[in-house]
UniProtKB/TrEMBL annotation:
Domain of life: Bacteria
Record-level GO BP terms: fatty acid beta-oxidation
Molecular function as annotated in GO: delta(3)-delta(2)-enoyl-CoA isomerase activity
Native species: Mycobacterium ahvazicum
Xref: InterPro entries: ClpP/crotonase-like_dom_sf (IPR029045), Enoyl-CoA_hydra/iso (IPR001753)
Protein name: Enoyl-CoA hydratase/isomerase family protein
CDD domains given in the database record: crotonase-like (cd06558)
Keywords (A to Z) from UniProt: Lipid metabolism
Length: 219
């Protein structure tokens, strides 16, 4: 798993792991623990993977072996997505490699995304693996993409390269592999010093309908 946090000044760089970085329950707990510390003790957040993957999303092996806990698991994943969407610090996903399914959703929940320019795919494969989007996940994707890009991303399973993703508005910039994290940090530099309470309140208002869909039990 190897989820770690480093600092670049007051910016926290949360590395999601060193493999496919799938969302096991242990991974979810570890990431949430780090996010609590970052929320309280850093001015901004970058997330990144290492090597070939940013994140391949749901831990389908765990889910298959624990099908009776499926509802609990999806709720936990959606709560993480809602937390990132309304995180009271500026956030950038440094998409260093493949971002698939819930991994792509995690990236899109950030304020901004920088993707590796030469390798890696950004993809929502649900239509091909026969897993329909939940209402919350669909709401998240549709809140961040133009209607036509959402149609392509959600209904075709298209694998966007970095340049494709940039042209479609899935990501805000691209960079060579060795510069993805530094480009994400640079994007955050002008945003430091925002009041946490104000920023969190603004994001909560902006995405109220999405978070309601991601956390239906909170109604």
């Amino acid at each position: 798993m190897s989820v770690t946090v480093e600092r670049d000044g007051s910016i926290a760089i949360l590395t999601l792991g060193d493999d496919e970085n799938r969302f096991s329950p242990e991974w979810l707990d570890t990431v949430n623990s780090h996010l609590t510390d970052i929320e309280n003790n850093a001015d901004a957040l970058v997330t990144a993977g290492t090597g070939k993957f940013y994140s391949n999303g749901l831990d389908l092996d765990w889910l298959s072996a624990n099908s009776s806990r499926g509802d609990w698991y999806i709720e936990a994943v959606q709560r993480l997505l809602a937390r990132l969407l309304t995180f009271p610090r500026p956030t950038v996903a440094a998409v260093n490699g493949h971002a698939f399914g819930a991994g792509a959703m995690l990236a899109i929940a950030h304020d901004y995304r920088v993707m590796r320019s030469d390798r890696g795919y950004y993809c929502f494969p649900e239509v091909d693996i026969k897993i329909p989007f939940t209402k919350g996940m669909a709401a998240l994707v549709q809140a961040k993409l133009s209607p036509q890009t959402a149609v392509t991303a959600m209904t075709t399973g298209y694998r966007f390269t970095g340049p494709d993703a940039h042209a479609a508005g899935l990501v805000d910039d691209t960079a060579p592999d060795e510069e993805v994290v530094s480009a994400a940090v640079s994007r955050l530099q002008p945003l430091l010093g925002k009041d946490r309470g104000t920023l969190g309140a603004i994001k909560t208002t902006m995405y109220a309908s999405v978070t309601a869909a991601l956390r239906p039990g909170d109604d």
